[in-house]
Amino acid sequence: MYEVTIIKSFSSAHLLSRIGGKCEELHGHNFKVEVTVGAMDLKETGLLIDFRVVKKWLGEILEQMDHQYLNELPFFSGINPSAENIAKYIGEEMALKVKTSGVKVARVKIRESENAAVTYIPK
Ligand SMILES: [Zn+2]
Question: What is the pTM assigned to this prediction?
Answer without folding.
Answer: 0.96
